[in-house]
Amino acid sequence: MEFKPTIEDVAKLAKVSIATVSRVINNQGGVRKATEERIVSAINELGYIRSAVARSMKRKETHTIGIIVPDIKNPFFPFVVSGIEQKAREKGYYTILSSTNESPIVEEEIVKIFIERGVDGVIITTANETGDHIKLLHDQGIPIVAIDRAIKNFEVDTVLVDNVNGSYQAVQHLILQGHKKIAIICGPQNTTPGHERFLGYKKALEDYNIPLDDKLVIQGDFMEGSGFHATHELFDLEARPTAIFSSNNLMTIGCMKALVDLDWKLGEEVSFIGFDDVEIATFIKPKLSVVSRPMNTLGEIAVQLLYERMNVKGNLPKRQYLLSPELKIRESCQLNKIKI
Questions:
Q1: What is the C-alpha separation between 338 and 71, in angstroms, rounded?
Q2: Mean pLDDT of the chain
Q3: Which CATH number is 26's domain given?
Q4: Are 285 and 168 part of one and the same domain?
Q5: Are residues 280 and 170 part of one domain?
Q6: pTM of full prediction above 0.85
Q7: Of 240, 196, 243, 246, which is closest to residue 220 (Cα–Cα)?
Q8: How does pLDDT run across 241-260, given as a tens digit for each residue?
């Protein structure tokens, strides 16, 4: 069993009373500066987190669930959060939402704040899949459910989408439409969705004996700007792709802006499929073909798993849900009529 420092441990190391440690932790004053510095040093050395006080005194439930997402601007996450909130209310819980802007440093700060606030559980799409800093939650006995991205260094319940199959279906459809020069705008390869969607792309090419062309593989970062710049890079190729597969919705938006900027005619000069449905998909002409995910369902399942962790006595095995995506063919995929 791992060592979980308590307020008594801090007091012993700092050679002060528990009451003095409590005064420093709660900013009540009345403690000499040198003593306070000694207590702070002991807290840092032990890795003590303030809400451990509450837990060591038989912590009460707060009926709150913390939600951590990497980018609230991403249209995917509001739908997932909506599913989380609705299911949480049905179970008698309220939610606290925080966005990290893909920063592991910010994520660690949020984790510590959630611990201090005494959340009963956390649902997270992590910015750092090693999970080293998320271990703070685990060590405090706070249940965790990972969504969209896996956590690698310790076991937690996980709800993912079959990214490999989703991207495979998209690229396969383009191949069956006669396309061989199919470009991909990738997400970060150190993330579950970025890596798995690239695997699906490669597998489809391999199954249909189409060589992988490194020039058609453009690395993006799941942000709109990278989709925009990637599309410009593809347009500048001597042998342009006849089809583009974008690995997420924000990069899709950037790609669409670039196509307009370049006067690269969507559905005529270049076919397109994006991963994740976006609001503009059916508003622009031609309508975008996409790989759609069950976003609300993903959030609802995450809450159910977390609720069981928080309320079921005894050890539960690690659980992983893999949800199926749906390929929605609209108007942006056309038969390849371009001679290459």
A1: 38
A2: 90
A3: 1.10.260.40
A4: yes
A5: yes
A6: no
A7: 246
A8: 999 999 999 999 999 999 99
Buried b (16+ CB within 10 A) or exposed e, 210-242: beeeeebebebbbbbebbbbbbbebbeeeebbb
**Alpha carbons 259 and 264: distance in angstroms, whole number:** 5
Neighbours of 277 (CB within 10 A): 22
The boundaries of the domain holding residue 12 are: 7-50
Q: Using CA atoms, how far apart are residues 246 and 275, in angstroms rounded to an integer?
A: 6
pLDDT digits (tens, 9 = 90+) for 27-81: 667 888 889 889 888 888 888 765 544 443 444 678 999 999 999 999 999 999 9
Cα 256 from Cα 201, distance rounded (Å): 20
Report the C-alpha gap between 34 and 41 in whole angstroms.
Answer: 11
pLDDT digits (tens, 9 = 90+) for 272-311: 999 998 878 888 899 999 999 999 999 999 999 999 999 8
Q: Are residues 216 and 262 in the same domain?
A: yes
